[in-house]
Amino acid sequence: EPEVTQTPSHQVTQMGQEVILRCVPISNHLYFYWYRQILGQKVEFLVSFYNNEISEKSEIFDDQFSVERPDGSNFTLKIRSTKLEDSAMYFCASSFTSGADTQYFGPGTRLTVL
Amino acid sequence: AQTVTQSQPEMSVQEAETVTLSCTYDTSESDYYLFWYKQPPSRQMILVIRQEAYKQQNATENRFSVNFQKAAKSFSLKISDSQLGDAAMYFCARDQGGSEKLVFGKGTKLTVNP
After folding, report:
1. Best residue in A103, A104, A109, A110 to probe B by mutation, most B CBs within 10 Å?
2. Which chain A residue has its CA at the smallest distance from B90's CA?
3. CA distance B95 to chain A (A)
4. Angle at CA B101, nearest 5°, toward B27 and B64?
5. Which H or E element spans position A93?
6. Which residues are A104's β-sheet partners?
7. Strand A53-57 and strand A5-7: pairing?
8. pLDDT tens per residue across all 114 residues of chain B
9. Average pLDDT along chain A
10. Closest-CA residue in chain B for A99?
């Protein structure tokens, strides 16, 4: 069964550094998402992406964040200058259509900012 | 913002017995979708079951079934014949009308005792 993959599984970085989290969505899916889960808290939506542009973003997704689909298969989340509070599990998800269609999640990247 | 509430932070069940996890939500829409996701210790979220609000029949997937009470805005998950592999965090989620994001509850940690 097709699945969403994410790399790396764990990323440790120093505060102020840039990180890029990578995702490979399911191949025939058209909608892509990033969610964040701070340890012990609920999963929060960050951004959705369709047709090579952001279709929706949350208030968390400020100017420090950006997303890109550089080559038709990868979907990346970049954090330009990491802060301590960016430490979280970041989940990529994809779906064939938007809205009510089932979103399939990747295994996540644990980001630790020191 | 529309919310999803899971009132049980933790639940436990004996192997082979039945357990019910609670979820309530708020909404002003008549048509929407509800989801239960399972997040095992490996941390990849897996879709357990999906319910369309316009369908009166409760969704069922093998040992997993829901009790969907639309008027009460309640969407509980019943796990029958619990197995050790059912131990995980369970998240209730709903789509948000006019949006592509999922809104999650805080989760219920399920322990299965042998």
Report:
1. A103
2. A42
3. 6
4. 75
5. strand A88-95
6. A94
7. unpaired
8. 678 999 999 999 999 999 999 999 998 888 889 999 999 887 678 999 999 988 889 999 999 999 999 999 999 999 999 999 999 999 999 987 777 889 999 999 999 999
9. 93
10. B100
